[in-house]
Design goal:
The complex is a heterodimer of chains A (about 450) and B (about 300). Chain A is α/β, with parallel strands linked by helices and about 450 residues long. Chain A folds into two domains: about 55-180 and about 340-375, D-Maltodextrin-Binding Protein, domain 2, CATH 3.40.190; about 185-340 and about 405-455, D-Maltodextrin-Binding Protein, domain 2 (3-Layer(aba) Sandwich). Chain A is about 45% helix and about 10% strand. Chain A is built from 19 helices and 13 strands. In chain A, the strands form three sheets. In chain A, strands 7, 8, 9, 10, 11 and 13 form a six-stranded mixed β-sheet that branches. In chain A, strands 2-1-3-12-4 form a five-stranded mixed β-sheet, with helices on both faces. In chain A, strands 5-6 form a two-stranded antiparallel ribbon. In chain A, helix 2 (about 70-85) links the parallel strand 1 and strand 2 (about 90-95). The longest helix of chain A has 19 residues, at about 5-25. Chain A starts with 6 loop residues before the first helix and ends with a helix. Mean pLDDT of chain A is about 90; it is low at about 1-25 and about 35-45. Chain B has about 300 residues and is an all-alpha fold. Chain B folds into two domains: about 1-55; about 75-305, Orthogonal Bundle (MetI-like fold), CATH 1.10.3720. Chain B is built from 14 helices and two strands. Chain B has helices at about 5-15, 25-55, 75-80, 80-115, 120-135, 135-150, 155-160, 175-205, 205-215, 220-230, 230-245, 250-255, 270-275, 280-305; strands spanning about 60, 70. A two-stranded antiparallel ribbon of chain B has the order 1-2. The longest helix of chain B has about 35 residues, at about 80-115. The chains are: A alpha/beta (about 450), B mainly alpha (about 300). At the A-B interface, helix 1, helix 3, helix 4 and helix 18 of A face helix 1, helix 2, helix 11 and helix 14 of B.
């Protein structure tokens, strides 16, 4: 790195830039030659069939995000069983962490050699963009054979549905099937609650009312760490769902109605700001990582923890029976909270083996798969027939919470699905709100500005 | 996105492609023949992608669907969007921490260590001070994450000496996050500057020092009159490297704060990454990358003026 630019070099730098510009100008409009995803290619060319054995030797490339221990074990088992049932199909599994998948799937889908089955994230930023670009195909044609509409509640299926142009979420074609469920709720430390003479909260109101007493007793009311930015979505989303009601909050996320400046949104933001100001959240929470917050809660620092059902294994192991989970109810009296189904198993538009891909999608989401998921410590979207989670355990609490929310219509999709840029806008805004840098009104306006600019583009 | 590297490399390439100027143009043909392999590699791996980036920056593109031509809108956004402007502002603040501070510290240490030229184990100290440069930046960032944590080393030390009030969540506090990130850069850069300056000072003619001492110059005087002019070249190199490092900072921010809290530590390279891979704004990401590359190029050219002219 010792070569320095001396004056004569400058002209050639400019020349180089000009040449580079010319090279670019020779290209065409980005996205105009989308390889396999030419746009209109949304129907399978081969007739729908469930006869996989007669397809001959084929390879199915599957991209998933199941890198965590429990779900990885489930996926391995299911893949093995699939290969046993259809020896002529070789599964080539590509497994990446959620974030790696998000950053690479886009390129993989638009390339010439697209995978056959991918796990697509819901909402406008991912699935919406994929559908708009014609990179996924509707799984509807196979529904008659596999019966997904019957097996899954309509509310859950709508999370994987988009209009054909990708502009309207939760209606239109089904673009994938999900095998797992997840909700954000409140983990509570049973021992600490008992010491304080409190019972576990069931509503947001009860929780809020108990916080001053907990703080007065010298305990941390809510453990929270937002250095990773996504926990802000979970905390605010759970409070919003219980404040505004599941329906209103869900409509906001799916662009079905409402505004982010609505009084309930401001009210939820005020709640959060009050908690932060009163010291109910740990000091310096914007500098505490999510894992650190969970570890602190497991050590008995903090009475409550807002987090997702994906912490089940970690907390169960660390705290045993001393921890419980509840999905808070709002004014309506039924549990309403943030959550959704796992990433959708979807069939790409570019696959040459759509029938085998559909068979795989069904195989990893059917009743037998649910049993595998339960056995490996996961939360299936629909519990296996006759399954009863053990009462009084964390797994039991979580299974009951999921059932109540998913069947009672109280499910609010993750708020960052609202617009392609919402993750960024919302996470920054929550940090500013709890950090005392913005008022609830300013917070709401920041979200609304992002939302409005998306509505204009849509 | 190694925007900075690209800019530097481009300069180097440029320097290579400008020989053979002179009164005898016929020679040029042969020269180009020799240059062809380098040019081909440069063209395929640098100029073509660069040209593509420039081209994409004129579009509103989500990376998947057909893009819409928006002309200079993405560039207008950079000038008008307070979030993007703030990110460039943060990068400028980081220059203070990544470049100015290490250079000043390096000079100070050079002045002091110059007197201890025969110190035993000098090579060892040099190696230790240079170590941060060798360690992978993600490792550096992760270590500092632990130091800055609310229960981390820094706060433990503060509490131990009774400065409880000063203890805070350094990376989560709106006032301290950016300086905290910057100081990591200072830590990394100081060793580099010191090693560069020491090697420069070692090349200064010993007689100059003797003469200065005979004239009765003190430590400061000797440093200003002899050492400083002698290592101007090294200072220019150190400034270029550290300023470029400041402007293209990505890994430090990505690992420690993700641009937070709020937007208080966003930098252009992080925004470009986020827009290209997370928020479906590929055109805007390219525009930010191009502006960043141009900025780095400009700053490098300005700094190059510090360097004494090399005699050919």
């Amino acid at each position: 790195m010792t070569a320095r630019s001396n004056p004569p070099a400058r002209r050639s730098v400019l020349l180089g830039l000009a040449a580079a510009g010319a090279a670019g100008a020779a290209g065409c409009t980005p996205g105009s030659s989308g390889g396999s995803g030419g746009g209109a290619q949304t129907t399978s060319s081969a007739p729908v069939s469930t006869d996989i054995a007669s397809l001959g030797e084929i390879t199915l490339t599957v991209w998933d995000q199941n890198t965590d221990e429990g779900i990885d074990a489930a996926t391995q088992q299911l893949n093995e069983r699939f290969s046993q049932q259809y020896p002529n199909v070789t599964i080539e599994r590509v497994s990446r962490s959620f974030e790696d998948l998000k950053t690479t799937l886009r390129l993989a889908l638009s390339g010439d050699d697209a995978p056959d089955v991918v796990q697509a994230n819901q909402g406008y930023p991912d699935m919406g963009a994929f559908v708009e670009a014609g990179l996924l195909q509707p799984v509807g044609p196979w529904d008659a054979s596999y019966g997904w509409q019957e097996r899954f509640p309509a509310d859950l299926l709508s999370l994987n549905s988009f209009s054909e142009d990708g502009r309207t979420w939760r209606e239109g074609n089904l673009y994938g099937v999900s095998s797992t469920g997840e909700i954000v709720g409140v983990y509570y430390n049973k021992g600490l609650l008992q010491q304080l003479g409190l019972s576990a909260p069931t509503t947001l109101e009860e929780l809020a009312a108990s916080l001053p007493a907990i703080a007065a007793a010298g305990q941390l009311p809510i453990q929270y760490g937002d250095a990773d930015k996504s926990p802000g979505i979970h905390l605010f989303g759970a409070v919003l769902a219980a404040t505004a009601g599941g329906k209103a909050a869900a409509d906001l996320v799916s662009s079905a109605g409402g505004a982010w400046t609505d009084p309930d949104v401001v009210r939820a933001a005020s709640t959060l700001r009050e908690w932060a100001d009163a010291g109910y959240l740990p000091e310096g929470h914007n500098g505490i990582g999510e894992d650190e917050a969970v570890a602190r809660f497991a050590r008995g620092e903090g009475v409550h923890l807002f987090n997702g059902t994906w912490q089940l294994a970690t907390l169960q192991q660390a705290m045993g029976d001393d921890v419980g989970f509840v999905a808070l109810s709002g004014a309506g009296g039924t549990p309403e909270t943030l959550g959704g189904v796992g990433l959708a198993w979807s069939i790409t538009a570019g696959t040459a083996n759509a029938n085998a891909a559909a068979a795989y999608v069904d195989f990893v989401t059917d009743a037998a798969a649910s049993q595998v998921l339960v056995d490996t410590g996961n939360l299936p979207a629909v519990a296996p027939e006759g399954y009863q989670a053990p009462q009084g355990t964390l797994a039991g609490d979580i299974a009951a919470g999921w059932q109540a929310v998913s069947e009672g219509g109280g499910l609010v999709p993750y708020l960052d699905y609202a617009t392609p840029t919402f993750y960024d806008t919302l996470t920054g805004a929550v940090q500013q709100l709890t950090g005392g840098q913005s008022t609830p009104e300013q917070f709401a306006q920041a979200l609304q500005a992002d939302y409005e600019s998306f509505q204009q583009d849509r | 996105m190694a925007v900075g590297n690209r800019a530097l490399a481009r300069e180097r390439g440029g320097a290579r492609s400008a020989p053979g100027r002179g009164p005898r143009p016929r020679r040029q043909w042969k020269a180009y023949l020799y240059l062809a392999p380098a040019l081909a590699v440069l063209g395929v791996f640098l100029l073509y992608p660069l040209g593509q980036s420039v081209w994409i920056s004129f579009f509103d593109w989500n990376g998947l669907s057909l893009a819409t031509w928006v002309g200079l809108d993405n560039y207008v956004d950079i000038a008008t969007d307070p979030r993007i402007r703030a990110a460039f502002g943060h990068a400028l603040v980081l220059i203070v921490f990544f470049a100015l501070l290490p250079v000043l510290l390096g000079l100070l240490l050079t002045a002091v260590m110059g007197r201890a030229a025969r110190l035993r184990g000098l090579a060892f100290f040099r190696a230790v001070l240079f170590l941060p440069q060798v360690v992978a930046s993600v490792v550096v960032a992760t270590s500092w994450l632990a130091i800055y944590a609310p229960d981390g080393l820094l706060n433990q030390v503060l509490r131990a000496v009774g400065l409880e009030v000063a203890a805070r969540s350094w990376l989560g506090d709106f006032g301290t996050a950016l300086p905290a990130v910057g100081l990591v850069g200072s830590w990394v850069g100081t060793g580099l500057c010191l090693v560069l300056f020491l090697s420069g000072a070692a090349q200064v003619d010993r007689e100059l020092y003797e003469a200065a001492r005979l004239e009765g110059a003190g430590l400061l005087r000797e440093f200003l009159a002899v050492t400083l002019p002698g290592i101007r070249g090294q200072i220019a190199v150190a400034l270029t490297l550290t300023v470029v490092a400041a402007l293209k900072t990505f890994d430090l921010v990505y690992v420690t704060t993700r641009g937070g809290p709020g937007d208080s530590t966003t930098v252009p390279a992080y925004l470009a990454y986020e827009r290209a891979f997370q928020t479906n704004q590929v055109g805007s990401a390219c525009a930010i990358g191009i502006v960043l590359a141009l900025l780095i190029l400009l700053v490098s050219l300005v700094i190059a003026r510090v360097q004494p002219a090399e005699e050919d």
